[in-house]
UniProtKB/TrEMBL annotation:
Keywords: Antiviral defense, ATP-binding, Helicase, Hydrolase, Metal-binding, Nuclease, Nucleotide-binding. Residues 393-422 are annotated as: Disordered. Residues 36-232 form the HD Cas3-type domain. In the N-terminal section; belongs to the CRISPR-associated nuclease Cas3-HD family. In the central section; belongs to the CRISPR-associated helicase Cas3 family. It comes from the Bacteria. NCBIfam families: cas3_core, cas3_HD. Signal peptide: none annotated. This is CRISPR-associated helicase/endonuclease Cas3. Transmembrane segments: none annotated. It comes from Streptomyces thermospinosisporus. InterPro entries: Cas3-like_dom (IPR054712), Cas3_C (IPR041372), CRISPR-assoc_Cas3_HD (IPR006483), CRISPR-assoc_Cas3_HD_sf (IPR038257), DEAD_box_RNA_helicases (IPR050547), Helicase_Cas3_CRISPR-ass_core (IPR006474), P-loop_NTPase (IPR027417). Pfam families: Cas3-like_C_2, Cas3_C, Cas3_HD.
Length: 989
């Protein structure tokens, strides 16, 4: 061990290095003055800064489980080893290829006697310092560690710190670009590694050798933590670098980085969660619920599982699965040393209420932890709670003007360290920008301050969100962590220290499922507990998820461990690996649902017209004597038409329209209003007569209670999800006519030959085979579709109906098993073949972007992980990677008026669209709307941000849809307008 207090110059002299070598190493730069706020920073200074950040991360950020693994592979010296592996990442900057990049900085290096010949001027051909570091370090580690296995998993950590992992062939450099000319370079490069290694506390490089190896998924997480340490250290030196090696020491690095870390407010989550006092305390004490049998079962399985594993909870809609999952997460985190939770939701709309629920839950551990809960999706700006916590806005439950705040999240008089010295800590660091990383959009208000319990805005970059201790967001964030994209390791590092909960897991289609399966493999290998929730999970999917997780645990791609059939419904399936073998179990005995089986009447309402006139008539008739009807259709234009029909017919009652082509503000307001009127707390606010027309937004995680449901036909599991909105809450008062829940199934009609004819949009979305099977199951209850010709279908005599939730497992099983259930003349086999061919193509398309090829899953290191390059450079491209279908884009609606522009709500924007403050920006962005896919090409070619948006971070990359004086815009052959009630309206010219 050495005295860390001395400077690196003193250390080099103590190590017996020649004066020439001391001088040369003292001139090697790590951050140029031109890109570091005007202050040069030496290479050894940056390495020590990163090690100092790593030490802080060990103490205040890493989970107990990850610290334990690092201790295991380092012989009990995990803290020191983590500091070393984080700091050594930039040793490759000690090469001509990097030192020659900046002519000003290169002058002092040349004058010290480190020369180089002619180097490539094309940066695409220039040897990168991340790969150079691996090329320099690998032979030294082999020589001094004497273990190819140990070296084999460590060198990719250095080579991959800029976001991609090259193959071993990729680190064979042009000799002169790494070694330079003569022995001087070799001596300097050796000295950089040795001096840094001694400065952090190891005796020499041989002393660093690990005694074991991390699994590949753990290596990926460690790589992300190295990137995190590098980025934080780079930010901490902006404008205050050290150009004098006599001032560079580990002690100085610690002081500087501690100050920076405190200003950024970085921290982990629980940082060591104690075990709950009783088995059910996480439910009864933490969440304040009287446990239902299904909730008890999930929590008890979290207690009994011997090692981290996969838990799949299947229970009826409204059973309380998410609360049970949070309680189980507390148990799993406490037992296995995890430090937070990520809750993955199917959509942005379902993420917002879950964010509020997780906020309430986290506060029960420590009120200060609410500032560590992130909402991860592109429209989080419209969440009042997110704005309150992360931007310092007034809280939704407070009437205070928050007069002590400047409106930007900073208390008056406090320094904004997050943007001090012109440093943008939300974007790429300097060398990342050279490698094609687009800068992230910073928050318009709110910076870091010294207040320890404030939110850490550093996490808000779209690559860093999962590093926050507690996060709620769309499932895309989980899927992104399974893609072969740059900086995937940052996303995975966040997941690897948490319990992961995936709600509505059945919502992933066959394309998205490929990424979900890949993510489960990596999470299984990283020993991350995962909780999957579903009301309607086909058995084949349950088995697929079990096998995927276990393949990660066992490190093989061909694992198949049959999961026993559930003994009842609700049920819990668990999967884990112990002693090198796979285990899959289900609930030992039937679990009783909290609600008694509910008979649901089904009847046909034949209609395949987009106009939806018959549906509108049925909805009006259904609530003629009072009640609340929910209409769920599969097409925005159809929803708009049904609403228009009812409005023009002077419907007497409340009428609401909810779909995906409403602007952000309207959609948020209407969702909140529907929840207020139909949610569990509606009470006296529940209207006497109301119709809500919605698209698939109302299909899941939409906690409303309808008296009658009119729904377009959908696959059976999704149809059951929609039925889950019926008679959902106990104690709801309803008219006598609605004492029994009733479903009218539309969007389908009988053709001349009796074969179902589907709404075109439905078949395009779901495919013919799944719709045919759903129709066959409905026919068993509602009678033949061909006989459903009653002109007043709302009063049609129903069939025997379904019993919900008792019939759910059998219906889902029959919808997806191999037995034919359709009449022969429906040609089910042909539809099945077409479905299989289409799904195979979608699977093959997804495989192009998966993080790891199946045949390489068992490879022990990250070497060559990015074998085909790094896909998806932008966030829009990344979103397109994990969601199949034609790409879509969002635009911001503005109106051109005499003298300038106005926002969708009339807010004046200025001559060029200028926005003066955050409040005006909020109102403007409330007009954000997603265009249909067929308009994407035209929008990309024709729409741009307004000139006045260039200095507004939230706006400068947003395309404006400028509506002219007549309220329309022409995008090639389509006339586009926005109606404040109907939403976006597109008409072909």
């Amino acid at each position: 061990m050495v005295d860390r207090g001395g400077s690196v110059v003193q250390l080099m002299k103590a190590m017996g290095l020649s004066p020439e070598t001391v001088e040369r190493v003292s001139q090697l730069w790590g951050k140029s003055a031109a890109r570091n706020g005007g202050r040069r920073h030496l290479l050894l200074g940056h390495l020590l800064d990163t090690a100092a950040v790593a030490e802080l991360m060990w103490d205040q950020f890493l989970s107990p489980a990850f610290r334990q693994r690092l201790d295991e592979i380092s012989g009990g010296r995990g803290r020191l080893w983590f500091m070393w592996v984080c700091g050594i990442h930039d040793c490759g900057k000690a090469c001509p290829a990097f030192q020659a990049v900046d002519a000003v900085e290169a002058a002092s290096v040349l004058s010290a006697g480190l020369n180089w010949g002619r180097l490539p001027t094309d940066r695409r051909k220039m040897w990168r310092h991340d790969v150079a570091g691996a090329a320099l370090l690998k032979p030294r580690l082999i020589a001094e560690w004497g273990s190819e296995e140990a070296v084999g998993w460590v060198w990719p950590l250095v080579a991959g710190h800029h976001g991609t992992f090259p193959s071993v062939r990729g680190i064979v450099p042009p000799h002169r670009e790494v070694q330079g000319r003569g022995p001087a370079w070799a001596e300097a490069q050796r000295a950089v590694v040795d001096v840094f290694t001694r400065a952090v506390g190891f005796a020499d490089l041989a002393d660093v050798r690990p005694v074991g190896a991390l699994k590949k998924a753990e290596q990926l997480a460690l790589s992300g933590l190295i990137v995190m340490a590098d980025w934080i250290a780079s930010g901490g030196r902006m404008g205050r670098g050290l150009a004098d090696a006599g001032l560079v020491s580990f002690d100085e690095a610690q002081r500087c980085m501690e100050e920076w870390w405190a200003g950024l407010r970085l921290r982990g989550g629980w940082r060591g969660l104690p075990l709950p006092q009783t088995q059910l305390a996480p439910l009864t004490d933490r969440l304040g619920v009287i446990p239902r049998a299904s909730q008890r079962e999930l929590v008890e399985r979290a207690w009994s599982i011997p090692v981290p594993g996969l838990l799949i909870a299947e229970a009826p809609m409204g059973e309380g699965k998410t609360k049970a999952a949070l309680a189980a997460a507390e148990v799993l985190a406490a037992r296995f040393g995890l430090d937070g939770v990520f809750v993955a939701m199917p959509t942005q709309a379902t993420s917002d209420p879950m964010y509020e629920q997780v906020l309430q839950w986290v506060r029960t551990f420590d009120p200060e932890l609410e500032s560590q809960v992130a909402l991860l999706h592109g429209r989080r700006r419209f969440s009042a709670w997110w704005r309150a916590i992360w931007e310092g806005k007034p809280r939704p439950d407070s009437d205070s003007d928050d007069s002590d705040s400047d409106g930007c999240g900073c208390e008056r008089g406090e320094a904004d360290l997050g943007t001090a010295g012109g440093y943008d800590d939300f974007g790429a660091i300097d060398e990342d920008a050279d490698y094609g990383m687009a800068p992230a959009e910073p928050l318009t208000g709110g910076g870091s301050s010294s207040q320890a319990d404030g939110p850490a805005h550093w996490f808000l970059d779209n690559k860093r969100g999962l590093l926050t201790a507690f996060a709620v967001g769309t499932v895309d964030h989980l899927l992104h962590a399974a893609t072969r994209t740059r900086h995937v390791m940052l996303r995975f590092a966040g997941l690897a220290q948490k319990v992961v909960i995936i709600d509505e897991v059945h919502a992933a289609d066959v394309y998205m499922r490929q990424f979900l399966v890949e993510a489960l493999r990596w999470l299984g290998q990283a020993r991350v507990p995962v909780v999957l929730l579903s009301a309607t999970l086909p058995p084949a999917q349950r088995q697929l998820f079990v096998d995927s997780y276990l393949s990660g645990v066992l490190g093989r791609a061909d694992v198949h461990e049959p999961a026993p059939e559930p003994t009842g419904y609700p049920c819990v399936t668990v999967a884990y690996g112990v002693g090198g073998r796979a285990v899959a179990e289900t609930s030992r005995e039937a679990v009783q649902s909290w609600r008694e089986p509910m008979p649901v009447e089904l009847a046909w309402l034949p209609d395949t017209e987009v106009s939806g006139a018959r549906v509108a008539e049925a909805a009006r008739d259904a609530v003629a004597d009072g009640g609340v009807a929910l209409v769920v259709v599969n097409q925005v234009a159809r929803a708009q038409a049904i609403y228009a029909e009812l409005r023009e017919a002077d419907f007497h009652g409340q009428l609401h329209l909810l779909h995906a082509r409403l602007c952000a503000a309207h959609r948020a307001d209407r969702t909140a209003e529907c929840l207020r009127l139909m949610g569990p707390q509606a009470g006296a606010d529940r209207p006497e007569r109301m119709v809500v027309i919605a698209t698939q937004l109302a299909e899941q995680s939409f906690d409303v209670d309808a008296d009658v449901l009119i729904t377009d036909l959908a696959p059976a599991d999704l149809l059951l999800q929609r039925i889950g909105r019926l008679h959902r809450h106990s104690g709801t008062r309803r008219p006598e006519v609605h004492s029994v829940p009733r479903v009218l199934v539309t969007g389908v009609a009988a053709g001349r030959d009796g074969v179902p004819r589907f709404l075109g949009a439905s078949e395009a979305i779901y495919g013919r085979w799944s719709l045919l099977r759903a129709a066959a199951l409905v026919e068993e209850s509602a009678g033949p579709l061909s006989a459903a010709a009653d002109p007043h279908p709302a009063h049609a005599r129903p069939g025997k109906g379904w019993s919900i939730p008792a019939d759910v497992p059998a219906l889902v099983y029959r919808a997806y098993d191999g037995d034919e259930i359709c009449p022969p003349d429906w040609h089910e086999a042909e539809a099945w073949e077409h479905c299989q061919a289409k799904e195979l193509k979608r699977q093959e398309k997804a495989e192009e972007f998966l993080l790891c090829r199946q045949r390489e899953w068992a490879f022990p290191t990250l070497e060559g992980l990015h074998y085909a390059g790094s896909r998806a450079a932008t966030q829009e491209q990344l979103d397109a990677v994990v969601r199949d279908g034609d790409p879509t884009i969002e635009v911001v609606i503005v109106h051109r008026v005499p003298g300038g522009y106005r926002a969708y709500d009339g807010t004046w924007l200025g001559v060029h669209g200028e926005v003066d403050d955050d409040e005006a920006t909020d109102r403007l962005m409330g007009g954000t709307v997603r265009l249909p896919a067929r308009l994407t090409s035209a929008a990309e070619a024709e729409l741009r941000p307004l000139p006045g948006w260039m200095d507004r971070p939230w706006l400068k990359y947003r395309r404006a849809l400028v509506l002219e004086g007549d309220g329309t815009a022409l995008l090639r052959a389509d006339r586009v307008s926005y109606d404040n009630v109907l939403g976006l309206v597109v008409v072909r010219e």
